[in-house]
Write a structure and sequence with these properties.
Length: 245
């Protein structure tokens, strides 16, 4: 296993854990084959720790979104390993991987990806259903929506909500399953500055409050500086990892 990073957690009152929430070794993703092959992620080694916020930054085409998808179990590596706990999730069948992802990972998308015919509550309840929760889904959805400031809008359709409110529904949906890992791809990219800062504050609250590991992909270096560590990617590889103050 990779050694724990020199991570000062005293500012959030959380000790450095002994074991990572997720660890990847020699992670590689190649699109296509032969002369047309393109290496999106090239031999990445990385550990993500419980209670940590990890920012992934880099220019367009650097592989940061592909790396995020691999960490979240949305995509599979061409080579290398992905370990969660004692489980090699890269070796799971498609059905097993989908179940693992539904129960352990919260995902926040830039473009929200809410089902337009479902209310805010129903979008969150669907995530709970997929995670295996059989009872109390409506109450749990109401609770998590209230936690992101949408207590009065649980029965609204996405078309009846502002962009910032839709993103908060997306965050609530990701938080509802109490994920061990939360992955957010450009979570503030579709929002104005004020809404983006509010949404990002919620993501930080997950890691520093609930002990989830949070990985977010962003072009915004000011947001990235708020993370515990910043991974800089270039041409599919990690160029450097910065531990923030």
């Amino acid at each position: 296993m990779l050694a724990a990073p020199a991570l000062d957690r005293s500012h959030v009152g959380v000790p450095t854990p002994l074991h990572p929430a997720l660890e990847v070794r020699n992670l590689t993703r190649v699109w296509g084959s032969g002369d047309a092959a393109q290496v999106a992620v090239d031999g990445v080694d990385l550990a993500v720790w419980p209670g940590e916020t990890l920012a992934i930054v880099g220019p367009s085409g650097s592989g940061k979104s592909t790396l995020g998808a691999l960490l979240a179990g949305i995509d599979r590596p061409t080579a290398g390993s992905v370990v969660a706990g004692a489980q090699r999730i890269d070796r799971l069948s498609d059905d097993q991987l989908a179940r693992w992802r539904a129960r352990n990972v919260g995902i926040v998308f830039q473009d929200f990806h809410l089902l337009p015919t479902l209310t805010a509550s129903e979008n969150v309840q669907l995530a709970l259903k997929l995670s295996g929760q059989r009872r109390g889904r409506r109450g749990a959805a109401a609770e998590v929506l209230a936690s992101v400031g949408l207590a009065e809008k649980t029965d609204r359709l996405p078309s009846q909500l502002s962009g910032g409110e839709q993103q908060r529904v997306g965050i609530a949906r990701a938080l509802a399953v109490r994920p061990k890992l939360l992955v957010a791809d450009e979570p503030t990219g579709s929002l104005d500055t004020k809404s983006g800062e509010a949404a990002f504050g919620l993501l930080l609250g997950v890691a520093h409050g609930a002990g989830s590991a949070v990985v977010f992909i962003t072009h915004d270096l000011d947001l990235a500086a708020s993370a515990d560590r910043v991974v800089h990617m270039v041409d599919g590889r990690i160029a450097s990892i910065e531990v923030t103050a």
